[in-house]
Amino acid sequence: MVQFNLADVFEAVASAVPDRVALTYEGRGLTYTQLDGEANQVARLLIRAGIAPAEHVSLYLKNSVEHVTTILGLIKSRAVPININYRYTAAELEYLLTNSDSVAVVVELPEHQRALADLLESCPLLRTVIVVGEVTGELAAAAAARSVAVVAFSESRDLPSDGGFDPRSGDDLYLLYTGGTTGYPKGVMWRHDDFFRKPLSGGNPYGGEGRENLGEVASAAKEFPELAFLIAAPLMHGAALYSLFTFFTLGARVVLMRDFEPRKVVEAIEQESLQVILIVGDGMGLPLVDEMERRKDDIDFSSLFSITSGGAIWSVGVRDRMLAVKPELLLRDNFGASETGNDGAFSVDETGCLRMPKSDTMIVVDEKLNELAPGTEQEGYIARIGNIPLGYYKDDEKTAKTFPTRSDGTRLAVLGDMGRVESDGTIVFLGRGAQCINTGGEKVFAEEVEAALHAHPSVADALVVAVPDERMGQQVAAVVEIYAGTARPTLREIQQHCRKTLAGYKIPRSMVVVDKVERTPAGKANYRWASAVAAS
């Protein structure tokens, strides 16, 4: 069986569709040939800077052309990219740089350079900093004091743009750190071949068998229509990264934005003739649909045929509002995670339940990892089988828990998602077990209550967490953001609204109204913050 390497896949597509536009960023367009050439130059810069195959390099970057060419340059040179959340605190940033054993960092913004300068002393493995743009005085001084080399990213422009790198392997590593919304992030270790076959669906994300070799990848790219996909999420987020590689594998055009700004996204629908927009759940979906409603009479939505979400819950209320703007939209809710990639698309039934069709790579197991038979009423853990990661970097304990091996030798990925299997094999998604609230013995999944809250006309955003209750053990608490200019609902009004779709024990018993619900840059829930707010 052919073993795929992500750099080989990209180069095969670039050779097959050289003159297609691969990337559009702030008005600049690069063809596949141009993007491949710039990535080759970055790869040569990395090699010249002494970065060897299998060494780890952190990307402390916002979305940009340089972010994309650095990712490609790293895998071309067989080094390992490390994604960094650019909103990390100093402690979180230090943890990731040291935990990942990064020997180099690519950084751009002055505030990020200053943050990095303060940490060089506590990151002994760091020996190189590659700077996009001007170097700040603080970073230059700190690097000189620590004998850390500072390399200008712009030097790559003077290097050869042709290929000719050493042979690569399907065993090359891609290390993707999780969002860390409930604790410090963990590094998910993907072999390139498994990355291609699972998160990238074997180069065939819209159904059918995966590609068997690079020739099939190239042929499929030639046949794929020249569609434009906008990635609204930051590339340091797993869903955005998986989408970037997926669209490149298809030979499509990726439209990238520096930051998620709903106004610019909606305007790009017309300006860039977008066909597909990728968002991350309600955190992006709510402000996006607000802007779609405001601009529905002056923006041409005719090119847009799909909005796709991944990485967070996308409520029915938000989807219904999008369909009211354009009823023909295909709304795709992808199920997946950093640890599993793309697991397929949810459908939503008339009760609002999320359902996954029967799959050969997804089962539901009990606490002893025994598979639950179809039609069993018992709730269990959704488990993935097949191409799954090697585990978490430098964390054998969490690897054993999340990626257990059954007695028959089958490795599973069990992330805590709860579900049940219906008689036809359909899996009904109940929620993330880590966010399950136990109130008087009844289980309440936070995502289900959040979806109900998001359907309230005054609620701009909401998170649901548990707070202690003397009698019930825990009770359901809501942290809510209200739309500007709307009347602030009372707790009783919120409860009455939720009773339309939720059982009584799932209704929020307390509510805190905040100016802004805090989320990660990718729009994912920050439950640590919400728990602290609710407890106060």
CATH architectural group of the domain at 32-210:
3-Layer(aba) Sandwich
- List the strand order in the largest sheet: 2-1-11-10-12-13-14-15-16-21-20-18-17
Kindly provide the name of the CATH class of the domain at 32-210.
Alpha Beta
Give the helix tally.
16
Share of β-strand residues: 25-35%
Largest sheet: 13 strands, mixed
* CATH T-level topology of the domain at 32-210: Rossmann fold
Give the overall form. globular
- Residue-averaged pLDDT, rounded? 92
How far apart lie the N and C ends? 57 Å
Pfam family, one: AMP-binding_C
Domain AMP-dependent synthetase/ligase: 10-382
Organism: Nocardia callitridis
Protein name: Acyl-CoA synthetase
